[in-house]
Amino acid sequence: MLEKRNSQRSKMVLPVKVLIDEATHLAHTVDITDTGAQLGGLQAQLQAGMIILLRRGQHKAKFRIVWLRQLGPNELRAGIECLEPDAKLWELNLSNGRLGCHRYSAVMSPITSTSK
Fold first, then answer.
1. From CA 87, how far away is CA 91, in angstroms rounded?
2. What is the DSSP string of 17-54?
3. Is-contact 10 38, C-beta < 8 A?
């Protein structure tokens, strides 16, 4: 059965911290959309419907776990939905509009060197 998505997935591997009941777990995104993400590398006890807090750098946002898939004995993959669409979690702009839980473009400055 084909699944219709409201938004397109963008492959993006970004390190994140997942906060669950005051415990911090390391994970990474597999892809992101304008309404959520797919997480990999999870090694925590999770359930669909659970609310988690994701932290990336100084930014954080609440997400709901929509689905889970067991990849190995100690590794889960999860589909998550953003509950705070105004959060600046990703700080990326990959399309003409906003992209999931962020609205601001990443700021990059050129590296310059001064030789003496």
1. 9
2. EEEETTEEEEEEEEEE-SSEEEEEEE-S---TT-EEEE
3. no
pTM: 0.72
CA distance 91 to 75: 27
According to DSSP, residue 79 is labeled: E
CA distances from 1 to 4, 7, 79 (A): 10, 18, 18
Domains of the chain and CATH, by start = 8-116 (2.40.10.220)
Token output for 104: 């601001």
pLDDT in tens, 11-67: 889 999 999 988 999 999 999 887 899 999 998 889 999 999 999 988 899 999 999
